[in-house]
Amino acid sequence: MKISFRFPSFLTALAGTARASVRATIRAAALAGVVIAGGVLWSSGGAPAAFADDQRSTTRPVYRAGEWRKYGQQFNAHINAATAGLKKGDAQLVFVGDSITEGWASDGRATWNKFYGTRNALNLGLSADRTQNVLFRLEKLKGALGQTKPKAVVVLIGYNNITAVYNGKSSPAATAAGVKAVVQRLKASWPSAKYLVLHVLPAKDPRDVKRIKELNALLPQTLRGERNVTLLDFTPAFATGSGAIKPNLTKDGVHLTAAGYEVWAEKMEPALAKILGPL
Fold first, then answer.
1. What is the pLDDT of residue 40?
2. What is the pTM for the complete model shown?
3. Left if phi > 0, otherwise alpha if psi is -120 to 50, otherwise beta: which for 253?
């Protein structure tokens, strides 16, 4: 007996509407300069308009797509400025990190000018970045990275991976692996540079104090064997007896005051002077 089956007419119409909607989306994306690849919408600037930000992955490039509306313009502006700075080809000192590094341009400006103003320094800090997000930025910048050859690179990253305050999802061990991945990616572009990798600075929240201590304890072993890498621990200068950041060095329990940036610069100067020479 032959059995025939026919979809109800309303389901057939619904499928046709869905196909038409997909085709319309693709046409609109093309007109807007968006490429659809692997189910992800990528803008003409190279940043995805939709991407599942896997917080568990600390060692592969990931874009912070969940924050596209507030982050997209900031990201593109950063990439444009960083590309221009790298293409000048004269950067001798590069800072890589998150908002704490980015803050050299605001609260740390006076200290930056004092310590780094004559050293052709370039700031590649971007607010809220985790290790995986830095790796994404470095991939976006890889065409420009080779156009300069810094002598020294300062890396401070990892807080946003583990913080309870900002809902970090990564374990200390995974974050330490992410720090190593960032260093190795930078070394692939700048093999002759000397690297100063900082322990994550103290914070105020007791949950973060615990997680930061766990992360920092893993960094020496994680980075052991990495050539031209010096690990710097400024915790004694920044922390109280409880391990929390000193109140006068932070404006919100995480980000630094002008005094905080001054302590950072002063504590790092001996190591930096060995690479760049004294001020």
1. 32
2. 0.81
3. left
